[in-house]
Amino acid sequence: MSKKRILVAGATGFAGALAARILHRHPELELAGITSRSDIGARLDSIYPRHRVPLELEELDLDGLDGFDGAIVAYPHGAAAPVVQALHTQGVPVVDLSADFRLRDLATYAEWYGDHGAPDLVEGAAYGLTELNRAAVQGASVVANPGCYPTASLLALAPLARSGIVTSAVIDAKSGVSGAGKGGGDFSEVSENCKPYGVDGHRHLPEIEQELKALGASGGLTFIPHLLPLDQGLLASCYVELSRPIDAEELRGLFDDQYSSEAFVEVVNEPPGVADVRETNYCRIHPRLEWGGERAIVFAAIDNLWKGAASQAVQNLNLMLGLDEGQGIA
Amino acid sequence: MSKKRILVAGATGFAGALAARILHRHPELELAGITSRSDIGARLDSIYPRHRVPLELEELDLDGLDGFDGAIVAYPHGAAAPVVQALHTQGVPVVDLSADFRLRDLATYAEWYGDHGAPDLVEGAAYGLTELNRAAVQGASVVANPGCYPTASLLALAPLARSGIVTSAVIDAKSGVSGAGKGGGDFSEVSENCKPYGVDGHRHLPEIEQELKALGASGGLTFIPHLLPLDQGLLASCYVELSRPIDAEELRGLFDDQYSSEAFVEVVNEPPGVADVRETNYCRIHPRLEWGGERAIVFAAIDNLWKGAASQAVQNLNLMLGLDEGQGIA
Amino acid sequence: MSKKRILVAGATGFAGALAARILHRHPELELAGITSRSDIGARLDSIYPRHRVPLELEELDLDGLDGFDGAIVAYPHGAAAPVVQALHTQGVPVVDLSADFRLRDLATYAEWYGDHGAPDLVEGAAYGLTELNRAAVQGASVVANPGCYPTASLLALAPLARSGIVTSAVIDAKSGVSGAGKGGGDFSEVSENCKPYGVDGHRHLPEIEQELKALGASGGLTFIPHLLPLDQGLLASCYVELSRPIDAEELRGLFDDQYSSEAFVEVVNEPPGVADVRETNYCRIHPRLEWGGERAIVFAAIDNLWKGAASQAVQNLNLMLGLDEGQGIA
Amino acid sequence: MSKKRILVAGATGFAGALAARILHRHPELELAGITSRSDIGARLDSIYPRHRVPLELEELDLDGLDGFDGAIVAYPHGAAAPVVQALHTQGVPVVDLSADFRLRDLATYAEWYGDHGAPDLVEGAAYGLTELNRAAVQGASVVANPGCYPTASLLALAPLARSGIVTSAVIDAKSGVSGAGKGGGDFSEVSENCKPYGVDGHRHLPEIEQELKALGASGGLTFIPHLLPLDQGLLASCYVELSRPIDAEELRGLFDDQYSSEAFVEVVNEPPGVADVRETNYCRIHPRLEWGGERAIVFAAIDNLWKGAASQAVQNLNLMLGLDEGQGIA
């Protein structure tokens, strides 16, 4: 049986290029085309030598998509929607790495990103945090791949949120520079520095709020990202007020119930470092209690470009195409 | 008038060596002796070329201290107390960089550090967070220089704590590797990593609790330090529950009242990065509100080796010796 | 057919742990045992979470080696020889990561490392720079895996040396911290620094000299390593005086003749960065000419822990066991 | 006596901003104005908080320069010449940080930088490598501040070049990212990387050639810069063929004769690291011999933004204005 043919649209950004790398080595999928809006004709391995993807970048031809069995779109927010629309119209299952299909509420979307380019597709899109929405992803034709901060934060908070005991939460998040994309951080400003940013409202805040609410959490949410002097890695340190005290056994039970059968979530007994998950699809989580069980602290570490973007996109694509979700990323 | 002669005891650690560097360039104090427990006979500039202190390391002679007009002790916790005792007995004003005289309660001290080597001196020692205890420092013969985390955390929280509106607080702190002292971090483990540590109880927690309580804060305190892949720099991100909502004007007023006349505290309108204060005695603070004023967020950045250790020690020594506190560190 | 069973002796150092990781994922070899001299009973993934090798560290039992079909030994210089001897005696093909079997001349060995623990095995050991000694490796029962600096330097210089036109050479080499092994670099000394070291004679110098001579190079050799503020990566910048001027075509021809059929050597048209080969078995080489062709400059980049140690060991082991050399490392 | 009033033209780049910081703290000079081509009206401390220069950026008024007693120009190559011309015409002594007045030969200048904007001033400009051209600097009204690579390379090679025994030289140079100016290095490309660049000809090559020839060196020169994953720091590793063998005593004598009375050049007995000179005006040099004295190796470390740019500019300005050259930078 021939391999299914996959397109990566927007392969010159960090996440798109990494998706191309993963698909190029995928045992059951074929990286059949890579496109970009610049560098047409260049081979991807001339731009990202380390990824060693010898394909040539082409211009995206929206009328010639029928040769693909699936697609990952890595366009900027706003620019992604029409591309996703075209793929969808031509029957190509698509995982979108942008924010365009993450927010259910079009007014909220407009507030952060402007007019939506394909509003009719929003309702049908699945929110692709695989471990929390597997069934929806499997049946979807459009999957909105979560943001990197939401991925770590929601995996950290889901077991508590689903049990209905979250009163309020502070997410103090730390991310490497690659999270901001190409050209996202000048070495001289980032090196030997650590700084909060986006404090007046980060784009990932409404996404986290939407999903936390869907999981059952109520109350106030504070989300403060910090920029770290490293390239890949994201740590969410979550401080959660609980509506009633719980003990260590109950805490552990909540996390085990949620994650014990998950291949890519590791619940561990000590705080994770981002290096523990570097260049993997793993999320490594350590929950603990304080104040007689009235406050939970949950640390979650991911690689922002892998589980926070490209490898989770492949995990979702695998599911959509009926493959084992770990193919090519384990 | 001849310059006052200062001893640095324990000059081969990071903080002691930096204190020696600052004193060697001090306009009104003379670095008259440097001692250590190893490397006797070596010149300090052979160990720390960048500091360019051409003095030779000597063995500490506890019977020959009368030639000094002041001292900074940079010994490990526990080892410092007898040295401070000896200096005090011989009438030498001393700033101690260890934790030995920070905790008022000897039982708490014993829990974290073991038996105390000079318990009679504890009560009389001033807690040298200069901006919060200036009067006590000026009159003291023994000053306990604060830990690096307490320095940033307490400067961040003092204006709120003193106003009596702090219900509880989370301090998510991030520090560079030098905070752990010489040999404190293997490059291969720290680089490209970020990790919480000391989560079962960091030694700076009782120190912060003691001083916060003294300032008027009640309620629970969570303190989680994280190790950053950088050498010098410390950021405390503090999330504070307030007993009543306040507005931006009141918030700013509280911080201005506390710090507007302070030379080394900068209250600013956007979040500080640790690079903003690198190799300075400054603490840079940004307070803000969330949730309709029911939660305050305060960021404070310092250099852990300067304001968090050596330069604050000189600031305190200046005061004890009747000099302008900014001499040699501005 | 069942997989061949491989032992990694000395799996807690950087190179041994990485060899274990590679073998644990190897499609045709089974990581059947890992041993160490410390941490007996601990699981390797508790020490190196990122490698995700769930095996338990055992004590090495020199009398119970007959269950293995091959071994990689990652002991310190001097300690490796008796372990290699024991494996050899019991008929287990072995790749040794130490320097114990690299130097042909026992007097030279003694000068740098002391008495040799298994002198009778030296002559029969193959020098495992795979691309330059493939035939010898295939037939060997003991392979001395090259040092990281020699690997990059010799791959850079071999095409010129074999053509007999090298008059003298300067190798200005730069390496990441992991090259010095665990605990090899304190963050505070390495970060924001770059420094030559080993200038009075680095242990890799006689190894490079021996092999260069064997390849046909004569004349003086200068080898100066520098420590870089990064973890993994090694760049050798080689400046070569030629006995006669050559042109660009001849230069390129020499490198193509040597490497055009090599899977793991990339000869490219612009200088490589060490990030291009990070966590791969590739060596990336760029040769060029100066001064009318009288001087050649050759840059070669490898990952010091992969091609410079663990992945090249697996490449050699594959060959010794009759497998495709790229199995598990491509 | 009132302090002399100094202008920094182009204060928003790294070197200009640092010059402003140094002058703002200068005991005998007054930073009387800072200008830029962007950010007019902004305070410099809003752009570079760490420098703490509270002055406002103004537009440069070429007709209103008579209120200044000296100037440092930190414009890009090509744009500097007319500004230097205007200052010179109005009698203001000027140190220019660009390459515009470094190259004596206008044809060579044109080859690298295009047409010259003030060719008549070239001949009269002094080349401001202070230690090698002090007399010329003292009497000059226009000083061309050297490039960072030439500064380290020429200080390393001058004692050998002046003795007439240099046959050829290889300069393998390594620099931090700030050497490329603002926006010069994306963190994701620089971090965990090390790469040669400018191999087809770096702009500093003709400058080094010109000055080496003036010092008496003949023969071929190879200059290869490498980019390091650090912010500030430059190391030149120089490999020099000598026309006759010399011994260690003669070597040391040559360097001592040249530098023993220099305040800012340290000749030391072991290789320097760039951290040894960080944020100082020092150049730290270690010379050694190989091959029976036929080859010399000289390492020189500087801070590329300090001795390689801003602090050397102040050193030169001090001399031009009749002050002690170390004022404000020691």
Computed structural class of chain A: alpha/beta
Rg of chain A from C-alpha positions?
Answer: 19 Å
Unreliable residue stretches of chain A: none
Strand order of the largest sheet of chain A: 3-2-1-4-5-7-6
Strand content of chain A: 15-25%
Series of H and E elements of chain A:
EHEHEEHEHEHEHEHEHEEHEEEH
Average predicted local confidence, pLDDT of chain A: 96
Total number of β-strand segments of chain A? 14
Distance between the termini of chain A: 23 Å
Could you estimate the helical fraction of the residues of chain A in percent? 25-40%
Question: How would you describe what is shown here?
Answer:
The structure is a homotetramer of 330-residue chains. The first copy, chain A, is α/β, with parallel strands linked by helices and 330 residues long. Chain A is 29% helix and 22% strand. Chain A has helices at residues 14-24, 44-47, 80-89, 106-113, 134-139, 148-162, 187-190, 204-215, 248-259, 306-320; strands at residues 4-9, 29-35, 57-58, 70-73, 94-96, 126-127, 142-144, 166-175, 195-196, 221-227, 234-242, 265-267, 283-290, 295-302. The first copy, chain A, has a 7-stranded parallel beta sheet with strand order 3-2-1-4-5-7-6, with helices on both faces. The first copy, chain A, has a 7-stranded mixed beta sheet with strand order 9-10-8-11-14-13-12. In chain A, helix 1 (14-24) crosses helix 10 (306-320) and helix 6 packs parallel to helix 8. The radius of gyration of chain A is 19 Å and the shape is globular. Chains B and D meet through loops of B and loops of D.
